[in-house]
Amino acid sequence: MAPPKSTRYTRDGFVSLTTETSLEIAGLVVRLSHFPYAPASVVADGRRTAKPIDNGGWLVHGHVHRA
Predict the structure, then answer these.
(1) Backbone angles phi, psi at 33, to 5 degrees
(2) What is the Cα–Cα distance from 47 to 25, expressed in whole angstroms?
(3) Number of domains in the chain
(4) Residue 40 contacts by C-beta under 8 Å, 6 or more apart in sequence?
(5) Burial annotation 26-55 (CB, 10 A radius, 16+ → b, else e)
(6) Residue 26 belongs to what domain range?
(7) Model pTM?
(8) pLDDT of 15-34, one tens digit each?
(9) Does residue 67 lie within any of the structural domains?
(10) Domain for residue 13, yes or no?
(11) Quick one: which of 54, 50, 25 has its CA closest to 35?
């Protein structure tokens, strides 16, 4: 049985595991997310989503399936 993902990632050097955070680059706040922005239809309907709501700022998102 494989160890939990959190154990594997911390073993491989990751300090934290989170779906979203932000950092400042050249004076701009940039969001970092596992997910892309939520579609406008989801936001308009008020449905819950783990995807961030587009606030007009920069978003870097993505993940790796195999490294």
Answers:
(1) -140, 150
(2) 31
(3) 1
(4) 54
(5) eeeeebbbeeebbeeeeeeeeeeeebbeee
(6) 5-61
(7) 0.64
(8) 877 778 999 999 999 999 98
(9) no
(10) yes
(11) 50
CB within 8 A of 11, min separation 6: which ones? 3
Q: Which two tokens stand for residue 8?
A: 């594997």
Percent of the chain at pLDDT above 70? 90
How distant is the alpha carbon of residue 12 from its chain centre?
Answer: 19
Residue-wise DSSP of 44-57: HHT---SSPP--SS
SS3 assignment, position 40: helix
> 3-state SS of 4-37?
CHHHHHHHCCCCCCCCEEEEEECCEEEEEECCCC
